[in-house]
User: Fold this.
Amino acid sequence: MSLGDKDTVKAFWANVAGKEEQIGCDAVSRMLTVYPQTKTYFSHWKDLRPGSAPVRKHGATVMTAVTDAVSKIDDLTGGLLSLSELHAFTLRVDPANFKVLAHNLLVVLATVFPNDFTPEVHVAMDKFLAAVACALSEKYR
Amino acid sequence: MVVWTDFERTAIQDIFSKIDYAVVGQAAFSRCLIVYPWTKRYFGGFGNLYNAAAITSNPRVASHGKVIMEALEKAVKDMDNIKATYAELSALHSEKLQVDPDNFMLLGHCLTIVVASQLGKAFTPEVHAAFQKFLAVVVSSLRKQYY
Assistant:
């Protein structure tokens, strides 16, 4: 990511403040509904429907982590080390799914911020989420 | 054989009846060229695609965006025969244009994002799923003639 990309991400992400739960819940709901193969990772949840309690809670967890990643944008690999270990050794999520969640998050951002989510913001966010996915994949092998 | 539920049929036809093809086509196609710049390789004859501002104001990008939407409309009008509808277009993309078929879903992603920003809350997860299924069928049909 260029300096410009990082600035764009930080500036845009400031809009998210206060809406983390709503956005996170919607992104996870969409991922489970639109890409049902992702449900295989959540068979331990009682309720996988859009907006359910476990979905809402997990959406908040994900958004807290992404917000944290924004603050660590200059060293994602170092900053996301323990999360990478979690995903690699405990959760064992196929890293291809990171792209899936990222896409659904971008769709939600487009619905919530139709005017601010310009093509320039879109490309910067896409690059950022790809970098986050890469950092999360670090410890896999 | 693709099986569409009544909900899916209605959702997709509803989306296409609500959107302005010129606006959405231009927005989705230009977004694709901006967010996934390697897709510019197929549009060498389109003039200035140097940066986001140039792409957004490029008239050939705008008109081609509309062409894409009109082609998608053909599938919406005959949802049970999408493979047959796109047989010729598939051969065109494979033999003449030589487009890497992995690019089709990149445009699909951008179209989803533009439709989402237009419809807002109305683009529920269920409607989103129907739209994604439609795009997957379109992409699969466009891939059919590649060998």
User: Anything to note?
Assistant: Residues 59-77 of chain B form the longest helix (19 residues).
